[in-house]
Specification:
By secondary structure, the protein is α/β, with parallel strands linked by helices. The chain is built from 5 helices and 5 strands. 40% of the residues are buried.
Length: 150
C-alpha cells in the first residue's frame, strides 16, 4: 500500500500556504502542523497584514495547533514549513516540544543554523530539503520582483 500522506504531500500543503502569502504580498512562507496524518493547523506569514514582526508562518501554525489540541505541547506533531525556521520560530518550537520539523529550503541569512543546532528541543527530529527547489523558487522570485520595483 502506498502512503500518500508523506513529507512531500504535507510540504505541498505548506507551499499552498506560501502561495496565499504571496497573493497577499507577504513574504511567501507557509506552514502546516500535522498530527496523526491530519493537518490540524495551517498558516502563512502575516507580518504585513498584522503589523506584527512575530507573525511568522511557524508561530501562527504552532499557536493554532496548540489551540486545536488544547495543549501547549505538540510532541506528537510535525511542523512542515517552506523555509528554515528563524531563531524566534526555533525557540517557539522548543517550548512547544514539537516532535518533528520538516523544512524545505535553507535560510542562509536568518535561519536558526546561524545560531547553532541547540535551539530545538533535544527530542525534536529535524528533516530538511523536502521540495527545496520549489519552495526556494517562490521566495527568490518574490524578492527578485521586490528589488526590481524599488
Amino acid at each position: 500500500m502506498i502512503n500518500v500522506y508523506n513529507d512531500d504531500f504535507f510540504m505541498k500543503e505548506a507551499l499552498k500556504e506560501a502561495q496565499l502569502a504571496l497573493q497577499e504580498n507577504e513574504v511567501p512562507i507557509g506552514a502546516v502542523v500535522v498530527c496523526n496524518k491530519q493537518i490540524i493547523a495551517r498558516a502563512h506569514n502575516m507580518t504585513e497584514r498584522l503589523n506584527d514582526a512575530t507573525a511568522h508562518a511557524e508561530m501562527l501554525a504552532i499557536t493554532a495547533a496548540e489551540n486545536y489540541l488544547g495543549s501547549k505541547y505538540l510532541n506528537e506533531c510535525t511542523l512542515y514549513v517552506t523555509l528554515e525556521p528563524c531563531v524566534m520560530c526555533a525557540g517557539a518550537s522548543f517550548w512547544s516540544r514539537i516532535g518533528k520539523i520538516v523544512y524545505a529550503a535553507p535560510d542562509l541569512r536568518h535561519g536558526y543554523k546561524k545560531a547553532g543546532d541547540k535551539l530545538f528541543h533535544p527530542k525534536t527530529e529535524i528533516v530538511s530539503g523536502i521540495m527545496e527547489a520549489e519552495c526556494a523558487s517562490i521566495i527568490k522570485d518574490f524578492f527578485s520582483k521586490r528589488r526590481n520595483l524599488q
